[in-house]
Please model this.
Amino acid sequence: MKALATLLASAAIAFAAPATAQSFVVTNATVASGDGSEPIESGYVVVENGKVSAIGSGTPASNLPAIDANGAWVTPGIFATVTSLGLWDVGAVSESNDTRAGGAPFSAALDVAPVINPSSQHILVHRASGITRAATVTLPSSSIFGGQGAVIDLGADPDAVTQARAFQVVALGEYGGRIAGGSRVATHTLLRAALREASANRAATSADIRSDDVLLTRFDAAALAPVARGEQPLYVYVERASDIRSTLALKSEFPRLDLVLVGASEGWLVASEIAAAGVPVIADGLDDLPANFEELAATQSNIGRMVKAGVRVALNAAAMQNPRNLNQYAGNLVALTRMPGADGLTWGQAFAAITSVPAAISGMGDKAGVLAPGAVGDLVIWDGDPLEVGSMPVKVYIDGIDQPLDNHQSRLKERYRDLDESDLPKGYDW
Amino acid sequence: MKKYTLLACAAAFAVAGCSTTGGSSDVASASTKDWTAPVGKDGNAPFPSTYSPYPGRPTALVGATVFDGRGGRIDNGTVLFRDGKVVAVGDASLATDGYDRIDGSGKFVTPGVIDIHSHLGDYPTPSVQAHSDGNEATSPMTPEVWAEHSVWPQDPGFTRALANGGVTSLQILPGSANLTGGRSVTLKNVSARTVQGMKFPGAPYGMKMACGENPKRVYGGKGRAPSTRMGNFAVNRQMWLDAQAYDGKKRDLGKETLNGVLDGEILVHNHCYRADEMALVMDMAKEMGYKVTAFHHAVEAYKIGDLLKENDVCSAIWADWYGFKMEAYDGILENAALLRQAGACVVIHSDDENGIQRLNQEAAKAQAAGLRLGIDIPDAEVVGWFTHNAAKAMGIADMTGSLETGKMADVVLWNGDPLSVYSRPEKVWVDGALMFDAMDRKRRPVSDFELGQPGEGDVK
Model:
């Protein structure tokens, strides 16, 4: 902790300046690159003009301003996938919550990009927890299609959206079945009907679709066209082994589909099939209960077993109380390597599952979630092992810009550091 | 698709879980007395516990770091237990003749983990409507219901809490739809065919109360009182006045529970988030002559640590839940540390079938947040947040919750520091009987529900 105080002080001196992309080098760091490899001791990272330009061990030849990390951990920012970051202030205050649109006339056409609020406390809190980018999307609610998600950054600037309309989501399984009319059968019929309409490419131009032809509006069918063409990934929410098989089988009918499985609690039962299909999975990290009948085989070893079978797996932020628990969940997967009969991940694999793998699934492979030349300058300096409970960032850079870490919570913490009201009420303490 | 628990609760107010359910001072009313309802004509209390400890071997855990649950730490310690009880806790010089020696080098020993706030059994998995037995949401006051009558002992959640969380005792509470939700039941986390077979012998009953958003929403939504926070208090106060007037001539199940509270025999566990509201509840308790044992979900407790200490009320809290409802908007990671700084009692709770598997990690998060604020809380004390302090607030601390001579041998051997994410329970004993062993796949319970299902007997 003392070393970190020094680090903070030196960092403050070095960068008390403006919020523009900086060029600097971090030395004497424990560097985890995020690519699945194990951390490098005494490493360095060079950031130039907002992008990573070099990473290695030892000391780089560089004239750039240097930050001595004193051995602290330096990593890429965490990439949280399948989140609602930027879409709500208070979950249960519906006026502040844009995650559902059950009464909307549209579904697949919904697009979160224009409504992301970079000033939401939810974003501020998660930035301070080391999450620098996220894939955000609304929940399927008026139809099995949830709409188009965006890749966002959590920077303190007005431009949150890194990529709009980055992916489409569809719910199959129990949840989708409820929406579709009461059963899984309806989800498959609806999905096929919609994809055929989208493939026929009539949707965008024609008024010849009879209004009772499909359950989607023309606008929705048009939105699905890039999915049918394989230009936009389709995230499929699915849990049960048999539902996963049915999902993989869609490729025989619609070969261009770019599928991603989300949830997949029974994925380990069909891991070799998922691997053979080359489909990545955004999996629930620690589900181990038969929460419903489609997750009877849930186990914390699910991810370890899928990775062992050759599946690319990212952790699903939607499966936890808050995305900021991603690193805790990843640490738990490492803990499993010490349990007889259980399957976990190495530290490097676990960290990749919350950095480079979700970034790659989101279309930012080699660009985010990794410290490598050419990647965005999303960098976090931590006060401890980033997978250990309680570790928090001391510095966060997004696109090479030093980020403010204050938020509603940190202000409350400072106000209530003591309960002294001898001079004035707490309302004057700010 | 329960991945969206948070949002589902937020948006749809689902029945289970988050939004609908919601120091060192001793709890005055803690008691070993097996208080139940007034006895029947046969002189017996109803639904008596049939739990009895399973056989165990005389066991000596040697060489591990021992946290006793009450702030004590012994490096290279020795813990001896036999016949279901802790015999001695000490250093390496303790003689172990006559005991099976288990080498704990590089490992850690703690008391069994205790969750003061669980709905296992009442909201079991699979979380289907047919299993939704946690809220008798038909009246804002249901002191007459007992959580034990809803517990499904086959809930697979009990087994996960044991194997992954080291949980040996837990309190099952009714949900928080009602101002007065009914009686809680304290269980030993031992697989049983009946709930009586899990009931913790001699544990006092608790009564669940709830303030704030949930009762006013549920009943306001039905067009009846309470629909506001002032309605919450009005209905509650009138309930207490009516209870005080009860003469006991004709049995009334609700009044029996309320009078158990007024007599100090039943402990009040009050779901309450906001600081200002907790202060009002404590004043109501004074007015009506009862005591709040613990506020649960006390997200804003850090704002009134002084008041909570003064009133000798524990705060049962999560480490980091916030923002999912308006009354959770001011949740901060430093809650536990600030409470501890004020000298108030801290308990880490779950209210969640997943969180109950990681209470140790939640405590570690809260500890780390304190350290960043300059509040350095020793590991040995933090372990007490999910062991001894929980036991105190449940009125069972004279029986379990710490490793002390004569107490129940509820013990966890961890394969590393329990405050690290990389550690897991390796062995768990309940009353000296080995009920979980990571090294022996048959030494883990499998519920009836899971037999013949995919994943039966898996490590989970």
About this structure: Confidence is low (pLDDT under 50) at residues 9-17 of chain A.
